[in-house]
Amino acid sequence: MAPSAINLNGQPSSAKIDVFNNYANWINGKAHITPEKRHGVNPATLENLPDVPVSTREDVEAAVKSAREAFKSWKAVPVEERQAAVTKFAEALQEVAGDFAKLLTTEQGKPVALAQAEVAGSHIWMEAMAKITLKSEIIQETETKQTIERYTPLGVCVGIVPWNFPLQLACGKIAPALVTGNTNIIKPSPFTPYCGIKLVELAQQFFPPGVVQVLSGNDSLGPWLIEHIDVDKISFTGSIATGKRVMQSAAGTLKRITLELGGNDPAIVCEDVDIETVAPTIATLAFANSGQICIAIKRVYVQDTIYEKFRDAMFKHIKTLKLGNGLDSETSHGPVQNEMQYERVQGFIKDIESQKWIAATGGEKPINLKGYFITPTIVDGPADDSRIVVEEPFGPIVPLLSWKTESEVLARANNTRMGLGASVWTRNLERGRRIAEQIEAGSVWINSHLEVSPYAAFGGHKQSGIGSEWGLSGLKSFCNVQTLFLAK
């Protein structure tokens, strides 16, 4: 299957994107095959996927050198032309959306409807980021002087992309880097390298050699890129533990970093909600992508007067979910993405029996499914200091807890080293905002969750990250700020 590519003028070009075969690094505008290869695994079937490159130090040196050279001319391209190129790239991705959605489901495991939404989001994110312009600003002017703040690109930027949203999060790093005049090297997760590789292959038709590159590899690749003296910025999305190592490695060269890390998002449910509507909604938001979303609901606090009815409504809803291969149109929930994460979530499942908790399901693996499947599970009333409440499982298991007073539930919700997202559910918007403004998190929703925007900053408080992505502040994170002092 090889759909036509689209060039900058919007006309079909001779290049093709075969999204099911021939995966290579893209360095300086050319495909590079490595001596060593590895492969991913389809998490729904456990079948091996095609071979992908294992980058060497020489590949890293070649890519960084090419990016450094391309930066000299790319930063001089007028911002309007850079924005136009990113927009055309986004449009081309939309042209092959169906193929990318199928590839995404095959490597990541999510249902095809969710994969289609991710491809659409990737297109939307790039188009939106291409519309945001960082303008110089006069911050002071008198009869004798003028002071101006302006933004200049950093140089060579590396995007380290996770396995839960491998396409949209890659686009969310590529677009702002390129629009602001930087060059970009994408490092996909070893678990989900396929969409990232093909995304950058498609990008070669819209950008000069060296502006957008991709390197696939094993666990050595990330440190090589992070420690490289000619890399100016790391944009990393992943776990808190890995984020700390990224920060330590980047310190040696004082390169800029943006870290979007894990979360333990609470949902605070007030007694005035419509239980029959809100309970299924919260269950849906907690188990979307099989719980493998950094800002998914991870803890549900329900006011005590409605706790039992709310719990029963959530239990009832999760029994309607259908696990299966994401390519099956009837599937609502796919597998956990990889064996390592599957074993981690199984550890939380085993705690149910050892801690004598009550659960809607036992977290058992469906006997008719071969892959890394775990039945969505709600744990009823575990202790606040239990592992399921304190840690982030990043899988289809969530604790349900009761509360009495606002001050009490806020103290419990904020009693974590994480602060990525949170939500408040109530008919009383004044009350909702009052509670929301006291939550220590980067994004707080009232009567919704998971809603993000390419125009709004996204980042975490506490150990959930450093800096922010997307929106105007996200573009600024790819720039140096320069102050001009003009004497009249």
UniProtKB/TrEMBL annotation:
According to the UniProt entry, its GO molecular function terms are: aldehyde dehydrogenase (NAD+) activity
EC assignment: 1.2.1.3
Q: Does the keyword Transferase apply?
A: no
Reactions the enzyme catalyzes: an aldehyde + NAD(+) + H2O = a carboxylate + NADH + 2 H(+)
Q: Which residues form the Aldehyde dehydrogenase domain?
A: 38-483
Q: Which UniProt keywords apply?
A: Oxidoreductase
Instruction: Name the residues annotated as catalytic in the UniProt entry.
Output: E260
Q: In which family does this protein belong, per the annotation?
A: Belongs to the aldehyde dehydrogenase family.
Instruction: Supply the name of the protein.
Output: aldehyde dehydrogenase (NAD(+))
Name its species: Oidiodendron maius (strain Zn)
